[in-house]
Structures are given as structure tokens and as C-alpha cells.
Automatic annotation (TrEMBL):
This is HTH araC/xylS-type domain-containing protein. PROSITE patterns: HTH_ARAC_FAMILY_2 (PS01124). It comes from Enterococcus phoeniculicola ATCC BAA-412. The keyword DNA-binding applies. Residues 192-293 form the HTH araC/xylS-type domain.
Length: 298
């Protein structure tokens, strides 16, 4: 797009949008007692609703049981394993989606826990979108219009999740729960330090990514930081930083002028092979494979 002329800059404009949201399909399945989906990670978000029965999910070393009508949100790069623990079996529906906007990703990571709360007033909006998706499963084929409807529903799902996140953010801001407030301060500091480093990825700034440095800046011990953060967000501070790194690296891999080595340095990896191994652990693809796969989809 050409640069805006001066006269256009002086009047009201709608924003330019250059953001990709991808929908990787969805399915419904009925499984029997004892069923297990082997441990896996995805490079995209996974959202799932339990329709019947009970699912047990192992996530970051913890076990969570999900019952009928409960919604699970698994962030990108998170290792997890699902199993059916109800004698009568279980039925679920899930979809996978991705957004290349780091700001949206950060909001979902910080304020949307693995188990979405029914007390949040936007829970029902998220549920409504998922049930609309389920209604579409009966079709044998999809016309162009129906495919656009699926994409429209994805936008509605992301908007509902962002509304959910905003509700949680506002609740946290007005909370007098010291643990919640401290956990939010830790998350904010990790985000701010990571952003500062990516803007100036110099050796003297590398301490910004150190968990010990972050704890010291908040006048708490590293063990207290770990305990408080895991209690609120269900992941460690280091894992949260890794999720920010992963999301940023996916975004940067869409920038063809940046080499993989430059991207590794920007997000704080001193060794290219270390970054490549970690990225493959997150997404099951190497950085070059991820870049190639996304270029082919354009």
C-alpha cells in the first residue's frame, strides 16, 4: 500500500489491518472409558468443550478434571494429554485456531486460563460460538458462503475470548487478593522485560529475561515468584516467557527479510540450534519448516 497523502492523514480513517487468523478445523468425538489422546503440543490454540462425561487433562505436571459444559483452552506450544475417566464414556468438541498478532496472543495467555470460568459473563458467548460450530458438522460439504461463515465464527470466537480476557483483567485490577495482584505484577514484568529485550536484543540486556533478575526487581524470592505465579496461571514464569517467545517467533517468521538466526537473537536465544530445537518442541516443525508451510498457504 502506498503512503497516505497528507490530506488523508488529516481526516478520520478506519485502521489498516494486516493480521492473519487461521482455522484448522474442528471435530466432535465420542470416546469410551480409558481412551487417551497421546501427549502432544500444537502450534495453535486448542479450545474444547465437554459435551458428555468427564475428561482428565494433564497440563504442565498438573491434572485437571473437566465435566459436561466446561470449556478448556490449551495455549500454543503447551504439552498436554487428554483421557476419558467416566465409565459411561465421553463426548467432546474441539477446534484449533491461530492468530499472528502477538498482542492478542498475550491477552489470551495472561487472562484465559486452561479452564474457563463460568462466572465470567462472556463464558456463554464463547459456548454459543462453539455450539454453532457443532451445528455445522452435519453438512457433507461446504459452499464458499458456508466457509466464510466458519471464518466469521472464528472472528466471533476470538472477540468473545478477548472480552473474556478484558473482564478478567478488570476483575484483577479491582481485586484486593494479594496473591492475584502479585501474580499480575510478575506477568506484567515478564511481558515488559521481554518487549524491552526484543526492541534492543543486546548482550547487556539479556538479564531482563532472567527469572532471578525479575524476582529481584519485584523484591521477592524466585521460589515465591514460582509458587504465586503457578497458583494463578497454572504455568511457571519461565513457561510463560517461553510462550511469549514462541508467539513472537511465529510472528517474526512471517517477515521474509528476517533470517532464522536473527529471529533467534531477537527473542533471546544465543544459539541457533538451541532455538531450532525448542521451536520444534513447541510446534513439531523446525523454524524453516514452519516458514515454508506458511508461505505455501499464502
Amino acid at each position: 500500500m502506498n503512503e497516505k497523502p497528507e490530506w488523508l492523514k488529516k481526516i478520520a480513517n478506519l485502521p489498516e489491518i494486516n493480521m492473519n487468523m487461521k482455522f484448522f478445523g474442528g471435530h466432535q468425538q465420542k470416546v469410551s472409558f480409558g481412551w487417551t489422546a497421546k501427549r502432544e503440543t500444537h502450534f495453535a490454540f486448542e479450545i474444547m468443550i465437554i459435551l458428555e462425561g468427564i475428561q482428565r487433562t494433564e497440563f504442565e505436571g498438573r491434572f485437571y478434571d473437566f465435566y459436561e459444559d466446561e470449556i478448556i483452552l490449551i495455549p500454543p506450544g503447551a504439552s498436554h494429554e487428554n483421557s476419558c475417566i467416566s465409565k459411561e464414556g465421553m463426548r467432546y468438541f474441539c477446534v484449533h485456531f491461530d492468530i499472528d498478532d502477538p498482542g492478542i496472543q498475550q491477552n489470551l495467555l495472561m487472562y484465559c486460563p486452561i479452564k474457563l470460568s463460568k462466572d465470567n459473563e462472556f463464558f456463554q458467548e464463547i459456548k454459543k460460538v462453539l455450539y454453532t460450530y457443532i451445528e455445522l458438522l452435519g453438512q457433507e460439504s461446504f459452499s464458499l458462503r458456508e466457509k466464510l461463515l466458519v471464518e466469521k465464527l472464528l472472528i466471533e470466537l476470538v472477540l468473545s475470548l478477548l472480552d473474556y480476557a478484558t473482564f478478567e483483567q478488570e476483575k484483577l485490577a479491582s481485586s484486593d487478593n494479594s496473591t492475584m495482584v502479585l501474580a499480575k505484577s510478575i506477568a506484567d514484568t515478564i511481558q515488559q522485560n521481554f518487549r524491552a529485550f526484543t526492541e534492543y536484543p543486546l548482550e547487556e540486556n539479556r538479564q531482563l529475561l532472567s527469572m532471578n533478575y525479575i524476582a529481584d526487581s519485584l523484591n521477592i524470592s524466585e521460589s515465591t515468584m514460582l509458587k504465586v505465579f503457578r497458583k494463578i496461571y497454572s504455568v511457571s514464569p519461565k513457561k510463560y516467557l517461553d510462550q511469549l517467545r514462541y508467539n513472537e517467533s511465529k510472528f517474526l517468521l512471517h517477515q521474509p527479510k528476517l533470517s532464522v538466526n536473527e529471529i533467534a537473537e531477537i527473542i533471546g536465544y544465543q544459539n541457533l540450534s538451541h532455538f531450532s530445537r525448542q521451536f520444534k518442541k513447541w510446534s513439531n516443525l523446525s523454524p524453516k519448516e514452519y516458514r515454508k508451510a506458511n508461505n505455501q498457504k499464502k
